[in-house]
Amino acid sequence: MSNNIRLRFAPSPTGPLHIGGLRTALYNYLISKNLGGDFIIRIEDTDSNRFNKNAEKHIMESLEWCGIFPDESPTIGGPFGPYRQSERKDFYSKMIDDLIDKGDAYYAFDQTNELDELRKASEKSGEIFIYNWENRMNFKNSLTLSKDESKSYIDKGDYVIRYKTYDEKQGSEITVSDEIRGNIKINLKLLDDKIIFKKDGMPTYHLANVVDDHDMKISHVVRGEEWLPSLPLHYLLYKSFNWEPPKFAHLPLILKPSGKGKLSKRDGEKYGIPVYPISWKEPGIEFKGFKEIGFESTALVNFISLIGWNPGDEKEVFSLDELINQFSIERIIKGGAKYDYDKALWFNQEHIKKISTDKISVRALNESDITKEINVKKIDDLISLAKDRVNFQMEILNECKKIICYDKKEIRSNSKEIKLTENILGIIEDFIKKLEQIDNITPNKLKEIYFDMLKNNDVKIGQGMKSLRVLLTGKTSGPDLFTLTEILGKDKIVIRLKKSMNIIND
Ligand code: GLU
Q1: Percent of the chain clearing pLDDT 70 (strictly above)
Q2: Binding site membership of 209 for ligand 1 (Cβ less than 6 Å)
């Protein structure tokens, strides 16, 4: 597509994709598709210390499971590749040279231990160490050392490159703008001279991210709130390069189930809830994902779409296509929203209700526990009844069996439990006789007959229903009894009631 709308999801492969990252990917996808544009995946693997070799696979498979397919990515390629930053080193070197030539960046030769000591000393006196316009001339860098001295460090590769965030020749205040939060004023004097190029020959996130977003013609940068503090630096980099910045939107935090603080990966274990779309294995431990627990991917997508976005009306259950139609940056909320697992289960139930029963029916036909109890024509009705009563699709067949099974032991124990009276037993005897005389019977007719009998014998409806349920199914609770009678059919009802009466009279 070429309408200039291009959004990207740019994960760092440092670990598994959690639901925060998935939401960022989803929102980028939804906005791009809503505006008829392209969705790009770029892997930001410039941090070799934190690189995890299984992460990219986990990220890609999670997105695929959720139906979030990119138009361009490391796997499928595209016109702006490569899509892995480790393969784009040349792009960054060129831009670094440009910044140095312009005087917007400089080489710094300070050793890590020297800076660490300064950091510790500042901490002791209750201050935060910052390397910036106020003190950069006190350090070992290309602004303070002679050309020759600098060159000897540079030749050894013993340097980092820092961005000159502020100097006294420029104004100290800039205004950055965020699509969700509006304009934000920043005092540049308070910021540090961030490292944009590391000793290992790789750019840091900040430089690589800006260069790539520009090169890949990204129109909107939509990312987590934790990147908001980096926005001023990114703005300045765009300015240094004389590039038009994209639109920025920083998404609200996903909060812990308690509503207090940002949801972390550890909260999964702490609260016993999934935080990854698909399972993630580490030596000695496996974290189960939403998929393996039994969630529908459509339910997960729906659930996270609403953590941070308000559709503006009462509607809550959305398919991916409906989300694409309705999603907009304008309705993303500013404040954090909490992860409510019960709500996730509720979404799953809603999405299960929408699944067609065909596949499940085929499986049910192989279950003799089910087919010996009901006419195969009633299998779909039974599945619909079961679908409303489970959290996960994989529980449906068992629920069907539970609803439909007839268990003598349960009849015995539960009929004692609910204390069946002579009066009720007499009604049931009459009810059986009445049913035997009628050929076709609708659930409504059956209900009418039974309720009339209860009324004529002064038995409360509740008690009558419970008794009939126990005698028909052995259970004290379950789905709507008269819907169930329709699934069982009149003949089976009569057989079961007669059997139960025998069991009780035994
Ligand atoms: N690589 C960054 C991350 O892991 C991307 C941030 C951005 O989207 O600019 O979140």
Answers
A1: 100
A2: yes
Strands 160-163 and 195-197: antiparallel
CA distance readout (Å), 255 to 164, 260, 341: 35, 6, 12
Q: Is 10 in the pocket of ligand 1 (CB under 6 A)?
A: yes
Task: Confirm whether 323 is domain-assigned.
Answer: yes
Q: Is 11 in the pocket of ligand 1 (CB under 6 A)?
A: yes
Q: How far is the CA of 275 from the centre of ligand 1 (A)?
A: 19
Total domains in the fold of the chain = 4
Instruction: Select from 450, 457, 453 the least CA-distant residue to 490.
Output: 450
Binding site membership of 223 for ligand 1 (Cβ less than 6 Å): yes
Q: Which residue of 26, 58, 205 sits with most ligand 1 atoms within 8 Å of its CB, as the best mutation to test the pocket? A: 205
Q: Answer yes or no: is 140 within a domain.
A: yes
How many helices (H) and strands (E) would you count in the chain? 22, 13
Atom of ligand 1 lying closest to residue 11 CA: 4
| Mean pLDDT, residues 220-235 taken together | 97
pLDDT digits (tens, 9 = 90+) for 23-69: 999 999 999 999 999 999 999 999 989 999 999 999 999 999 999 99
Dihedral in degrees, nearest 10, Cα atoms 122, 126, 127, 129:
30
Whose tokens are 């060159």? That residue is: 151
More confident call, 504 vs 100: 100
Which atom of ligand 1 is found nearest the CA of 8?
Answer: 8
Query: Which of these, 501, 498, 464, lies nearest to 481 by C-alpha position?
Result: 464
- DSSP state letter for 288: P
Residues 399 and 418 in one domain: no
Residue positions counted in the chain? 506
Print the domain residue range for 418: 408-505
Cross-strand pairs, 160: 108
303: its two tokens: 């659930």
> Which tokens in the block code for residue 51?
């690189």
What value does the mean pLDDT take over residues 322-347? 96
What's the pLDDT score for residue 506?
77
Confidence of residue 2 (pLDDT cuts 50, 70, 90): low
Q: How far apart are CA 365 and CA 372, in angstroms?
A: 10
CA distance 202 to 92: 8
Is residue 87 within 8 A of residue 131, CB to CB? The reply is no
Strands 182-187 and 173-178, bridge-based pairing: antiparallel
pLDDT value at 216 more than 60: yes
- Better pLDDT: 167 or 207: 207
Does the C-beta of 44 come closer than 6 Å to ligand 1? yes
CA 38 – CA 503 distance, rounded (Å):
68
CA distance readout (Å), 115 to 18, 111, 119 = 34, 7, 6
pLDDT tens for 155-174 read 999 999 999 999 988 899 99
Q: What CATH number does the domain containing 152 carry? A: 3.90.800.10
Residue 224 lies in a domain: no
